[in-house]
Amino acid sequence: MDLQNRHPATQQIARHFAFDHLPEPQQTISAYSYHLAEAMIRELPDGPELTTGLRKLLEAKDCFVRASLPATAPGGGQPQGESLGGRAVPVDPAKGWPDS
Fold it and tell me: Cα separation of 29 and 42, whole Å?
């Protein structure tokens, strides 16, 4: 993501869209939000609306990642069942948005 010459607020929030540190399938889910954030930063001027939109996208990304985590037993015990998973979509950051 090219952040040179961008407002410090844009630079600050953009760093939270990194996904390489996550395991699968959370990495793939998070990558969708990264690519959308990257496109919005590329296409829109800096300003309060961009910053707010990125913050809300970040909140949504966090929800999507949490939704993909395995459920836990009451009291915080071992997970019940399988991860919600879904199909894995290969994401190549060099190519941009993944093909479905």
Answer: 21
